[in-house]
Amino acid sequence: MPVYLCHPGENDPEPWRYGLQVFAAPCKIDDNAPSSTASVGGGTDLIVADWADDEDVKQRNENIQVTKAVGRGTRPSISSQVVRRVRHAELLLVDDVCLAYDRFWLRLRWPGRKGGFAGYIAMGLVSEASRIFSSHVIDSHIPGVLAAEDRASGDDLDHDDNREETGSMPPSEPSEITSLVCSRTGLLFPSSPVMKLLAHYDDGLSPPVALAPNPSDSVFCRICREGLHDDADDELPAAADDDADIDRTGSGSLPQSGSETGSVDVGQSSPSDPKAPESPHPSYGSNHDAMQNPMLAPCECSGSMAFVHYLCVEQWRCRSRHPDAQDGLNCETCGARYALPPAEREVHVPHVDQDQDDWLEAMPPHVMQALRQPHIWWQMGAAIVRRRWLRPIAPVIMSPIVALYCRARRLLKKRGVARRRWACSLCRRRARWKCVRCLRSYYCSRQCQNVSWHIIHKHVCYKPVRFWWSVLVYSIVGLLLFPGFRRDPLVYDLGLMAVPMSFVVAGILGGSAGILIKKALGIDARGRLLELTVVLVTIFLSFVTWGLIQSFFGNPNACVGAIGAYDITASDLPSTSSMLRWFQILILKPMKTFYLVVDKGCSQYLGTWGKRLLCDDRSLLHFFPWDGEDEYTYYKVGCFEHIPFANENFFLKEHGGEKCAGDLVMVLSLYHLAAVSFIISTLAKHEERRQRRERMERRLPRQGRAVVRRPGQHAHQD
Asked: Where does the MYND-type domain lie (predicted)?
């Protein structure tokens, strides 16, 4: 489909202040209004002030004529039809050209394979000469020549500061023959100084337009090397917290189909006219991702260097140290000044807040500072994603590690171990929101999320395909590092589960210890030291637990003996012996029965290929000492290597389990202590919330609020 370049402020010293208004549907535009100026082709272009106070906007809207829709009464003004604005040097996709109200209208399309309707842009009035010319080209099938970029000076345009154009007008009698013809309406795609048709470029997705030659150049970013549709296909996820930004158009959401805005009179073009807009009009849906990071042509570079994403070029300008760049004002390749706001700027227009300017909103000062002096993790991430061959590999390897780290940090924060707050992934300020898709990347503002997403995070954010690739990669790595995992997957799974369980226990104990220290000594023990202590306790507890698991499956020498040997039969602590006995009855015996049943079932029902993959050949014929004799009796056992040796009495003295008994007592004691601490802390927090809620209710004035009484609750008299 045709690619257009928005160039309304080409001859202005600050072209980035200009833009074109986009309408939800074609509407009547009064060319005699005071806010309109003459155009190059004999018509007029409506120019509305970009930054104006409310009185100025009201006066302009009163001078705009409105039409009446059939059976709908008076239609809203033009301002109610404006849904957004496109900025200077922005690239646009056009999939249709039509006639309505004696004017050309370009129907825009959002980039991306699923891009939808993006609004209409009003072009110039249609003269009789242009009608005859268009009919002559279509009837005679003149191939024409490619439409070169119009180099008109645009002296007839009003170039006052802070202007925004609602549309650009092609000449009444086209001076150049364009080869792009709309297949639906048969109209030529018009071009003008402020809406240039780039016929030399292909959008890279749609089939060729009728009568168009083979395109030679594709549209892609010269920095990240992504095409026009590649970046749009990666949808920016919303923030996990309430992070609803006001739409920069300021017009709010549009009415649904069937409302006054959805039913539009096409003026002098009847619905049956093939050159009229499609009826009914498609409903407009905003695409924040495309509006926040559009594809631009900000300088005079051409060919493969012509286009660049807005956020990519802003990052480049912040980091560029080339002498020709002049602190990011000029392109270091062609030497031309960027058609973008300067990197360091202040809002100097009255009645305009920083959040009301779309350029300033996209790059606030703290984002610019973060791009000039990025932290080490950001530099590493940017260096990885700049290499295209690393982009599919890095998230597969790093996503599980980052996910485990984030979950561990949240647990420590929740249990009262960590005091550090989450830092923004870009600027390292205090973060308030996180990515709702992966819950791993934190941001201080929507602007930081936009920049981080388009530069780094979209390449590493969670996706189902990346998750399954991570599972596959780490499974292969685990099999290579631990060959026994294939022979005894259930045993190693049990050992793997011991790590998060040990971390949870250590976190609960660490948080409880921090609370006790604060209440007893008045010292806030939360911080890195307590976090490090929890990590060390987790490692130690996991190591001891893995030794107990190995001892349970027939290797009593694997026990660590952290607190020494312990003989349960000669114990002077009957409570400890009773705890081990109950643990043996309730946990160890059912576990042994379960694992032996699974082992026997796998040996009988897996089949040939299953046995070759999982079963150990040595486990099919083992030898064991029988009745204490030196001779060995051979008999057939199950599928796996160590499961047949499961023994619920591994911690008894007759099995050489004195060390195992001591380790088991220590581990069970820590687990019981963590459970009691968790229950006490939960009840204490619940009581604190209840007391806080009662204090807040007592502070509220009794006048003007309803008192809700629970069943059985009596009114309180002061």
From this structure: 424-461
Comparing CA positions, the residue from 377, 383, 387 lying closest to residue 427 is 377
Pinpoint the alpha helices (H) of 293-393. 310-319, 358-362, 365-372, 376-385
User: Which tokens sit at 443?
Assistant: 């941001």
Q: Tell me how far CA of residue 185 lies from CA of 98, 188, 265, 540, 575, in angstroms.
A: 7, 9, 18, 75, 90
User: What number of CA atoms fall less than 13 Å from residue 528's CA on the CB side?
Assistant: 0
Q: DSSP class of residue 604?
A: H
**Phi, psi values for residue 166, rounded to 5°:** -85, -15
Q: Domain residues of the chain, as ranges?
A: 3-236+290-325, 376-481, 486-673
- Give which of 569, 587, 590, 559 is closest to 664, Cα–Cα: 559
Which has the closest alpha carbon to 87: 245, 252, 291?
291
Find the helix packing angle between 365-372 and 310-319, rounded to 10°: 60
Cβ distance 446 to 453 under 8 Å? no
pLDDT single digits (tens) 480-535: 888 777 778 888 888 889 999 999 999 999 999 988 888 888 888 888 899 999 99
Tens-digit pLDDT profile for residues 146-187:
233 333 333 333 333 333 433 333 333 333 444 578 877 878
Question: What is the C-alpha to C-alpha distance for residues 670 and 675, in angstroms, rounded to an integer?
Answer: 9
pLDDT at 617: 60
d(CA 215, CA 201): 6
Q: Report how far residue 166's alpha carbon sits from residue 470's, in angstroms, rounded to the nearest whole number.
A: 49
| pLDDT tens digits, 87-96 | 888 888 888 8
Amino acid at 44: T
Q: How far apart are CA 718 and CA 708, in angstroms?
A: 17
- Using CA atoms, how far apart are residues 147 and 174, in angstroms rounded to an integer? 11
**Following DSSP, what letter does each residue of 407-447 receive, concatenated?**
HHHHHHHHTT---PPPBPTTT-SB--EEBTTTS--EESSHH
Number of Cα atoms under 13 Å in the Cβ half of residue 200: 10
Please classify residue 18 by burial: count the beta carbons closer than 10 Å to its beta carbon, then call 0-12 exposed, 13-18 middle and 19+ buried: buried
Q: What is the 3-state secondary structure (H, E, C) of 133-182?
A: HHHHHHHHCCCCCCCCCCCCCCCCCCCCCCEEECECCCCCCCCCCCCCEC
Per-position DSSP letters for 438-473, written without gaps between them: TS--EESSHHHHHHHIIIIIHHHS--HHHHHHHHHH
How many Å apart are CA 657 and CA 556, to the nearest integer?
Answer: 6
3-state secondary structure of 709: coil
How many whole angstroms separate alpha carbon 227 and alpha carbon 322? 26
> How many Cα atoms are found within 13 Å in the side-chain-facing hemisphere of 643?
32
User: For residues 203 and 63, what is the distance between their CA atoms, to the nearest angstrom?
Assistant: 39
Separation CA 443–CA 533 (nearest Å): 28
Q: Report if pTM > 0.90.
A: no
